[in-house]
Amino acid sequence: MSGMDLQQDSSEHVQPRLQRQTSAEIVSEARRSLRALATQRPLTPQEKHRALFGESSSRAHDGRPPSAFSLHGRHFEAPDSRPGSGTRLSPLEHKPRLSVSLDEYGGDNEASLPKPPAERGSTRIGSGGSRTRPLRAASIHRLPVMTPHTKNMSLEARIEVEQPDDREKLHYADVTEHKTKLSSETDLHTLLKHRIPQTDVSTEREAKPEARLGYGDTCDDNMDDSVFWSTKVLPVLQEFESFAPGDGVSDEIVGQLCISCNRLHDALAERGMLGRQCKKRSAILRTLFRLIDVGSDRLNLTLAKLILALNVSGNNLLNICKLVFKISRNASNDGMFLADSILDSLLCQLQCEDVWSKAEAVLYCVGSLKLLSGNSAVSSRLLAKDFIGTLLQLSNSLMHGPVTADVTTQRSEGIIAGHILVQVTAALRNIADQSESRPSFLSNEAFFTLCVILEHHRSDLDICINVARIFSKLSTYTECCHALAETPRCCKLFLELLGKHSRKQDLVVRLLFTLGNLTSKSVEARERVYEEEGGIDVLLDLFQAYQETLSSPEQCHAPEKEDILVKLIRLLANLAIHPTVGTALAANSLCVQLLLEVLGRRCVEKSEELVINAVATINNLSYYQCESSVVRSQHTHISQLLLKLLLSSSMDAVLEATRVFGNLSQIRAVRRFIMQHRVEQFVVTLLDSKTPDVCFSACGVLINLSADPDHRAALRAEGTTQKLMDCLRDLGPRDWHLAAVVCQTLWNCSLDGEMQHSQKLLEILQLYTDKGALQWPSDDGVRQVQEACWELLFLPVAESLRQRLHVEDTPGISP
């Protein structure tokens, strides 16, 4: 077996598989001289400030929702009120048959009175009935200001004013018949005197609790509700009312308020009165809204959980989500989100069927979760709650939104959907840092959904960069890499984005890194990139553009641009592992020219990874011996460039240059170049490194040199035989593939009949060819690989060499 034969045998390269390999596959993989390159993942920059959109966002500041705003209790609407439509309805032609004076309130017959319509042009605000006013077109009703009279009233009386039952509504209507305006505080006080009898209040309360609480029906069920209200709810609301907005509240009192809020939440939940089930819901919300002005993040977060549980909607829902977002912007508050079940409340908002009805609220809600997901403890908690599945379901809802014929509506929905997807993809980007997130990404088919998002929003740079960051993180793991490689059209999509956004360095470097990961592990990915129409042209255009940029003196060491070239050249090296792609790239003059320009212009001391990747790519391309290979035709120029690298201080650069010489030294002219420039002396000294990779590369050159009769004597003069025997003795049991190459080199050196130290070599071979005398690893997998390489690679060559030495040492027998 000649040295050239051995080099030719190393052409087989089989894609590593996840299942157990056969011995033949192990050997074929071991013989592979083409290698996939690794590189560092681009780092995700940390935002200095928490916001909806980062400082590097491509969105205009004046065209996106704000991250900073002020919120107070007055910003919340009266519960259950709705903005006016701008259209006044005509009153019903109906008049009450009975007229009830103010003095007659409280009689038992009131429950049977018919309900009169409101006066024309007059309506009550929300569910409160303390004052009336004309309805203005498109008006938004805010919480009424607490007047001195109402502030001094008992909570019970005020709740009756704000939350009348059917009898009270009838009586209000009758009052409205007599007095159409109650705008002054005196009028309100007069009304309250009519509603609350000025008799012995304590006696009245004991006698008729249902009247005190505003319930007209005295059946057992309602009596139970009355008792529940008076014992569980009313005391908590009275406690809240003792704190007027703006008053200074200590941390201790805030803690008591939070406990009371949670007690109220638990009581309503146990009674089944959360959501919109509670009759006094409006009164509860009014009281909770006023507490927001206390200004405590801890209290506001507790209030938000309860208010969300009461199923607010419209402007109130938006403001509560904004309030939570405002709290989440402070990283020191992250622990509060862990201590409460507010995360469940926020996730529920993302699981709505009609996201478009509360899209802006969802934006701030998912924005809060995005900020919180940057905390590893919170992200772990979110993962346990199927956060990834929830976000992907929300994404699908946004991409399959309601179909509307109105162009303006479509555009506005598309804008808000884009804003939300920026938050969704940023949250997924954060959560991808957690190692335990990978099973969830895989089980939810996240890669397919993310590719669909990219396809729908390829012009949105914020979304594209977020998704690219997700892929760059996850594709470093084998199982995720294979899942992404199997996603339809992902390679095509990445190439299209590289062509469309070629100047967006943050995006380009991550797409190239992801493609490099895919092509390092997947044969199919290599084929898809190559077979995609214009795919290789896109990569070479990028190569040329960034190469020219780095040629200018002011940009010659721009790290961001250089990193793009590092990732791009690595991608080319990984593509070249495929025989069809490698042959085509080796014959591509532009590709080879650009690689040689990197070696000619860049200094290994300043751009080590870039230069090493370029040499490794040339090594993979030099492997293919086709006549059209530009690498083979430019062997002289390449050899001169490699000579400079052998003299550098970078051992990695020396190793890569030696590997290229291992392929090119099959060419006679290159062998002459090596001997003329004394390169063989340097290569022989590499055998002293005691490093398997370095010794293996050195043997690759020495095999080809020793196969040439003109150079054997010079090699023996350098002490090559002794160094090869030392290498075999010291490294053979650790790497049987290396041992086989060493034996082949020794065989070539002895082809002219001369072998130094033959007896010593024979002893080593007799020991290493006895399987029972060798020590094997205890790990079954490692042992299987080593035994396969020993049996199929080392043993045939070693036995042939041992027999040759034995014949030479036996008198009277000619070899």
Automatic annotation (TrEMBL):
Annotated stretches, region: Disordered? 1-143, 197-216
Q: Which GO terms describe its biological process?
A: animal organ development; sperm axoneme assembly
Entry-linked Gene3D superfamilies: Leucine-rich Repeat Variant (1.25.10.10)
Q: Which InterPro entries match?
A: ARM-like (IPR011989), ARM-type_fold (IPR016024), Armadillo (IPR000225), ARMC2 (IPR038905)
Compositional bias, Basic and acidic residues, is annotated for 46-64, 202-211
Question: Which residue windows are transmembrane per the record?
Answer: none
Q: Which PANTHER family match?
A: ARMADILLO REPEAT CONTAINING 2, ARMADILLO REPEAT-CONTAINING PROTEIN 2
State the name under which the record lists this protein: Armadillo repeat-containing protein 2
